[in-house]
């Protein structure tokens, strides 16, 4: 699995990894095959079986049955997460609306919005907490999150507790450094939006982030 990945394994082999051990007279792969045979080699049938039904199988027991049920539950939750419509952040106004609560923060917060190739939100994270008039943001912190989330692009957002969203020289410097780092890493900076009390400033709308 280490070389080819889990997708290269059969259902029986994956089940054997979940089981971890076999029973007396059968190794773990043989036990996994026996379980799959019991449920007609159907993952759906195994998934729909009760905890007690699986635990009652020879050599399985409650602990192994719980591991099997937990694996299926994680799969269900992943499917539910992937099936949810994602938030589309394709304009400064949409970004401002999504982060509207930042208008009332008393300290500067830097938020990174991580996007897929269609500019839909994957996840977001508040990466730094500053003082009442500045925040410290390093490209390393931003792109560590982006790489971990397998993001295609990102948006920076931070607030100005003063209520005035006009960018400072530090804001411009940080924007440029992250945009340049993104070009190297292949993770595009779509925009940097500064949230004020009643309005916002978009670096892209101001022409300070290139379209390419």
From TrEMBL:
Q: Name one GO biological process term.
A: proteolysis
Family annotation (SUPFAM superfamilies): RuvA domain 2-like
Residue ranges of domain MPN in the record = 87-209
Example GO molecular function: metallopeptidase activity
Q: Which Pfam families match?
A: RadC, UPF0758_N
Q: Which CDD domains match?
A: MPN_DUF2466
Q: Which domain of life is it from?
A: Bacteria
Assigned keywords, A-Z? Hydrolase, Metal-binding, Metalloprotease, Protease, Zinc
NCBIfam families the UniProt entry points to: PRK00024.1, radc
Query: Into which family does the record put it?
Result: Belongs to the UPF0758 family.
Q: What PANTHER family does its record include? A: DNA REPAIR PROTEIN RADC, UPF0758 PROTEIN YEES-RELATED
Q: What is this protein called?
A: JAB domain-containing protein
**Source organism per UniProt:** Pseudothermotoga hypogea
């Amino acid at each position: 699995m280490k070389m080819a990945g889990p997708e290269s394994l059969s259902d029986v082999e994956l089940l054997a990894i979940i089981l971890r051990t076999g029973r007396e007279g059968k190794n773990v792969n043989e036990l996994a095959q026996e379980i799959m045979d019991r449920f007609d080699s159907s993952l759906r049938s195994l998934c729909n079986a009760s905890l007690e039904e699986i635990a009652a199988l020879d050599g399985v027991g409650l602990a192994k049955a719980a591991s099997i049920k937990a694996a299926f539950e994680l799969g269900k939750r992943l499917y539910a997460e992937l099936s949810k419509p994602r938030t589309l952040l394709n304009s400064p106004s949409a970004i401002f609306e999504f982060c509207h609560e930042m208008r009332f923060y008393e300290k500067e917060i830097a938020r990174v919005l991580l996007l897929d190739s269609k500019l839909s939100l994957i996840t977001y994270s508040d990466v730094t907490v500053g003082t009442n008039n500045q925040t410290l943001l390093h490209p390393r912190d931003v792109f560590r999150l982006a790489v971990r989330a397998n993001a295609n692009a990102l948006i920076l957002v931070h607030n100005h507790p003063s209520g005035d969203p006009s960018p400072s020289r530090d804001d411009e410097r940080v924007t440029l450094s992250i945009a340049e780092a993104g070009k190297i890493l292949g993770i595009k900076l779509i925009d940097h939006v500064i949230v004020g009390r009643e309005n916002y400033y978009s670096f892209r709308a101001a022409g300070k982030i290139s379209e390419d």
